[in-house]
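User: I'm curious whether this sequence folds into something compact or stays loose and floppy. Could you predict its structure so I can see for myself?
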Amino acid sequence: MNRKHILIILSILLLLPWGGYGAKAKKAVFIIVDGVPADMIERLKPPAIGRIAAEGGYSRAYCGGIAGTYCETPTISAVGYNCILTSAWANKHNVWDNSPKPDYSYWSIFRIAKEQKRDVTTALYSSWTDNRTVLLGEGLPETGDLRIDYVVDGFDLDQKNYPKEKDDLQVYRIDDTVSRAAAAGIREQAPDLSWVYLWYTDDAGHIYGNGDYFDEYVMKADRQIERIWEAVEYREKYFDEEWMVVVTTTAGATTVIITADSPRASGPRGSRRTFGEMPASPNHGCRSSTSLRRSLAFWISTCLRRCCGNRTERLSSGKPISALSRPCVATGRSS
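Assistant: Here's the prediction. I'll summarize afterward.
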């Protein structure tokens, strides 16, 4: 083999993706569908969620700390989001209501991603602007001037294009815009780590309780999820990529695919949907690795390892992610 041939081979090797020839690019997207209890998903069997679960799995989980102890956490939307983002209870991340004041020393999955040794592209497609500006703390010195690469939000502040409607249906229209933008973003930019937030299912449950209206908008949300799933399928078909998709609600998370419980008053269809504290998990205390913390840490670890490789940095707790990463067991329940 002459010198010219050697130089050609070396040039080709330098152009190959880091990590070896044929390695698929790892991507992750998680979708929060607000306020949907597990028993509703199990009864309605939404087809898109079913298709996603068929590729991975489905499990119940819970979010809310341990009732009656110092880590008891309100089952309120923003509180649940931050549990999912940080893998910590409210007594640590300090979000107690929908006017959040986070303790940013508990890093979000987005900050962990951005602290990796290689560039990780991130995206947020959200019906509520505070998810970015407050919970993630984009641009704040407390979050190390965190920046999200692709952002679609602000519609909740746009009263010209989304004026208030009966039953807050402007929020459903915002969700529809967000889901279309997420599908387009995944198809065209394919960020390494994406968060999609869909809001209206929670409003539907609060306004009318269990019944046909709530059912209808859960199924409509499923069609919005389907757009995102089809975008993921498109990327895997036409690009050398492997995607992890997580579907969850404000009160749970999972290792692969989950629609977890939102606490809800038991009652016949048509009864008012009310929220309260999740029941205590038996045999667990705040200092132990509860099922939610395990599941959150597990999927955060898996997401990061997929989009960042094996050189993932530590969680804000200072413990290696692998030390917290154990799969969730089915412990959540509707109450």
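Summary: Residues 35 and 202 are 4 Å apart (CA to CA). Strands lie at 25-33, 122-126, 150-152, 193-198, 241-248.
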